[in-house]
Hints:
The chain is mostly beta strands. The protein has two domains: about 70 residues, SH3 type barrels (Roll), CATH 2.30.30; about 170 residues. It is built from two helices and 15 strands. The longest helix has 17 residues. It is rod-shaped and about 110 Å long. The two termini are about 15 Å apart.
Amino acid sequence: MKSVWMGLVLGVCASAFPDEDYRTFTGTDGRGIKAKIVKCDLRSGKVTVERENRRKITVPVDVFSFADQAYIKDWLALQNFLSNSKLRVSVDKRKGKAGETSETKRAKPPCFYEIQLDNKSGAVFDGIWVEYCMYMNTEGFKGAPDKLTVEAEKSDVFKLPVQGKHLEMTKEVKLFRYYTAQTDHSFDSSGYPDSSTSYNKTFEDNMEGIRVRIYLKTPTGNTFMREICDPASVEDKYAWKAPYARSSASGKKRNNRKY
């Protein structure tokens, strides 16, 4: 599977974790220090912070207040979420089998996408979901206007365990070429009436691409998002459309696979 990354990440609430600003951390003894997080390893229970004088210190996470401990856990979740090596997201375009066709409506292979998340971070992602917009352009010929159709959907919220994978399959979009029939009347060499039918293409459906957003909501209520576009030009050409949540009665849940 290929990975397609646009701009890497957008953070819905990423302002909670400014890159350069120092904040006041409060210890369990009530004393505060101004610092920013440099590194955190919850398995060892240690966090490395940098103070305003650039001095780095490594201390147990539990020396800080409960509010700061929650902040540290959110910070770590964000670092894992943003990292392509820790949360791999791949988008693959697939084609199905063309269905029924006619002289005036000729079927092309339908199109859908596979979106796979692969957790390599060593931590569980709890409260994650996928949203996407697929853009189909119906091209008009001989002066006919183009028409854009957007298919937008939202997955259920799910948990992604350590070394876990989740495969989200989009809906399948049917594509066609449209023709008008034109009958020409003439006479053959013997003078008898003759006719022939020609077909002129009026419209053609083309899948332009997909825009995928992955969301993570942390236990403290912060929500983060990263966006992937395939191809990259989709970001500038097409606007995002808020998707509908998938209905459990629609039968589409069978498209979602966890490993």
